[in-house]
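User: For a benchmark we're assembling, each entry needs the component sequences followed by a predicted structure for the full assembly. Here are entry 17's components. Please fill in the structure.
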Amino acid sequence: MLRFNRSHLPLNQKMQDFWDINGFLVIEDFYAHEECDKLIYKSEKLINDFDADSVKSIFDTKNQNHVDDNYFLESGDKIRFFFEDKAFDSKGNLINDKKFVINKIGHALHDLDEDFYNFSHRSDLDDIAKKINISKPLLLQSMYIFKQPNIGGEVVCHQDSTFLYTEPESAVGFWVALEDANIDNGCLWVAPGGHKGPLRKLFTKIDNVMTLKTLDNTPFEETTTPLEVKKGSLVLLHGRLPHYSCENTSNKSRHAYTLHVIDGNCKYSSNNWLQRSSMPLQGFV
Ligand code: FE2
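Assistant: Structure for entry 17:
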């Protein structure tokens, strides 16, 4: 797998070719370790301040438990907290301190928290987005993903455009390793070139009813490539690229931060689960 770094920015031809052929791109050392540490520290503070008893929302992609969960579905313009499916015992009590059993925080960190804002709104990210043909980049959602040691759950194979659909499709994931990611602690796996296949499913919310509709039954291309990346790496993921991540069975966490970006010149579907009526979307700059 080809890897690039800051010296190749803004995206040189080799990077653009790699992106076009593969549907993903790894840029090492994009963020300094100090910048990653600041975000890790801030996530700890947010969790500390969060009253876990007030809500017990679970994020579980295997069972799609959250599809009827208003706490999740109304989180597009908020900072909300979602637990691992193994976070609770049979009586509904947390099995461990909240900071060890949280799955993720989403979905408007990039707009509502100063540190996340500064991490997300940058001209170098804007330059990258424009180089991959997002003519008017808008920051749609952000997630802090914990991938906890021992219980960090699997994220099943999917395409991001299933959940963040525009016409024409434009969603791109900007995924940042806040800690080293490897096979043992549940790194991303991708299907190189799979972004050229069809969109398989579409997740819609119509009249408050959530449906995962099958558009195409073609099996996903094989996710043959683990993206083992170092802390500070930025990974770009095309909205149609099949990708997944395994359970974290190691004793090391794998924190990551993702931003999903769409093109403001494309039509954002009113049937997407994420609607931002209260706060207009902003660009990188
Ligand atoms: Fe994804």
